[in-house]
Amino acid sequence: MWRLLCASGPRSRVDHTVLRPTLGCRSRASSRAARQARRVTGRPRLAQHRRMPKPGTGRVEALALARAAQGADLVIGVVGAVGSGTSTIARVLRRLLRRAGADATAIRASDVLARAAPLDWAAAMAEPPLRRFGALQAVGSRLRHENDNAFVAAGMIAGIHAARAAGGPPIAVCDAIRHPAEVQLLRSVYGEAFWLVGVVCDEATRHARLMRKYGLAPDDADAARAVQDFMGRDENSGVEHGQKVAEAFRYADFHCDSSASLPQADAPDAVLDAWPVTADLERFLALVRTEKPMLRPTEAEQAMYHAYAARLGSACLSRQVGAVLLGQDGQLLATGCNEVPRAGGGLYGEGMDDPAEVERGRCHAYGGFCRNTDERNKLVDHVLDLLAEEGVALGDETARTALARRLRRSRLGHLVEFSRSVHAEMDALVSAARRGVSTVGARLFVTTFPCHNCARHIVAAGIDEVQFIEPYLKSKALALHDDSITLPQAGWVPPSLARRLGRPGPQRVCFRPYVGAAPRLFRRAFLKDGEVKDGMSGRLLPAPEQAFENRRPLSEGYRALEAEIAARFAGTG
């Protein structure tokens, strides 16, 4: 009986489109003959595990039934700063899916806003370019304020529901995500059927694209400033219900760099295939759809996963950051996270047997508050006191509180030097130094863009290249050290190599956006949790016959919730 219950165990693979009746069990003699044939031909076992029993046959095969019920639904979101080309990425994703024989519904955030507030949207679109930026953002902010910060995602879900009800494809591509609450809602509804692509692009390229898009003259200083302000509000508006793209970006499952422009999304195949981003998007789709089960992490992906693991060791009250140093041969040199240092070397939490000692110096136990935030607040109060002493009218207590809030959101609120924690990059560098390991020519992988304090130490340590995932808007690293730091550019040569070759001229450390699978994607993408070879012959199974688990949820589990959200969204009009 136990054999019957487990007949469709981890080694089986069920046809997810058709539930076929079983042919019954083989006799012992026929099984022996089949095994002998497999030794000769290498043909894998197939039919007995791909077929489902008819009701009443006495065979349970519950696991196979659950697998067969897993949905083919797939929802892909795209997130990126304005001007990064999220719409192009979304269109190319749909094109690549069609090339692979799978269609996808296009869901656009702009369509959601236009349907929810048609008059306001039309009025905003009629504004001149320099005023249109803020007007369009204001429409979204108002709708979030009147509903909740996930309002646009609710509209996307309503669009997906309507498309499926009309017989549309099970795959949808959402362009574009602009708030972390939108990611939270889509993940809450679709679970592991939702995937998020993060699009990065250097700031100068984004600025130039927006100037061209709105027909603004390159030498128009007022227009250039307006576009720059627009870009800043897009990344983090500073308003509770405004756009927060930088925060949403950290939840991406895969990252691509669109700094290289594609002439148009419907460019000929030869042009599309030559675009560097295409290979990255094809890799993403292969991971998502498990088309290539033996696809393994790249060196950069493996390094960033180590950085992510180091990040989890941080108990910082503000954010967790992880870093890893890789030598020129790809060997791991040191890891680091942002945590409070302890006497004797290292950080709290490292190599301590006494649980009480592990937590003693960490901020949550040592006072229970963030010293950096506390010092910034004291600085703001000090500024207000100085203004009052000079006779500057600050108004009543309500006005003073409002001014204090604005000061905290100003560059005063960007100060980071009062933190008790060693930053992750510095922890990695100091850890290497304690062990006498040279960092010259090494590469640094860090989960967040380095602050300007860490950046100068990275340069001084002889690091060739830095790869990062999350942006850090407070950092002035590029502005303060553009003589020794650069973003990716053609012809860049690692400083250590340039010195060995005796190349004249200034050299720069390259700060490069990370491209590839995000650490959060690793288990879903790279865990080999099924058979890839025939158990008898040892031969590699063809991809369609490899019994990898499909972790997508049961579509029935979220269809009811999807319908309810769609109904509520329809009631907002």
UniProtKB/TrEMBL annotation:
Highest taxon above the source species = Bacteria
Q: Kindly list the organism's lineage.
A: Bacteria, Pseudomonadati, Pseudomonadota, Alphaproteobacteria, Acetobacterales
A single Gene Ontology CC annotation of this entry is: cytoplasm
The protein in question is named: CMP/dCMP-type deaminase domain-containing protein
Pfam families, alphabetically?
A: dCMP_cyt_deam_1
The record's section on SUPFAM superfamilies has: Cytidine deaminase-like, P-loop containing nucleoside triphosphate hydrolases
Matching entries from PANTHER family are given as:
DEOXYCYTIDYLATE DEAMINASE, DEOXYCYTIDYLATE DEAMINASE-RELATED
| Coiled-coil zones | none
Cross-referenced PROSITE patterns, in alphabetical order?
CYT_DCMP_DEAMINASES_1, CYT_DCMP_DEAMINASES_2
GO molecular function terms listed in the Swiss-Prot or TrEMBL record? dCMP deaminase activity; zinc ion binding
Spans traversing the lipid bilayer: none
Q: InterPro entries attached here? A: APOBEC/CMP_deaminase_Zn-bd, CMP_dCMP_dom, Cytidine_deaminase-like, dCMP_deaminase-rel, P-loop_NTPase
**Signal peptide range in chain numbering:** none
Q: Which family does it belong to?
A: Belongs to the cytidine and deoxycytidylate deaminase family.
Q: Provide the species name.
A: Roseicella frigidaeris
Asked if Metal-binding is a keyword of the record, the answer is: yes
List residues of the CMP/dCMP-type deaminase domain. Answer: 298-481
Listed A to Z, the keywords are: Hydrolase, Metal-binding, Zinc
